[in-house]
Amino acid sequence: MANFVLLYSGGKVPTTPQEGEASMKTWMAWFQTLGASVLEPGAPLGASKTVGSVGIQEGAGGNVSNGYSIVEAASLAAAANLVKTCPIISEGGKVHVFEKTAM
Known about the structure:
With 103 residues, the chain is of the alpha+beta class.
């Protein structure tokens, strides 16, 4: 088994506390369907800065990720299949699946 980082992009941002609560319930229900493969449900990503050769800049510098999770699966293909029903996809977003590699 290997570990995979899921980076979420796009989707719909809740505009009211009620939408936020409903969204969280949907996500938690989805994580429950994944069972033990969820190693870390992760969290949404907030404000950011980009650090590079030109110094520190405001914002994500082209990175469109707005959240992450970590899952365990037998292969990259299996990890991708796990996320086909992710709630963000039905909202027009995407899930980017990356295998974590050893250093």
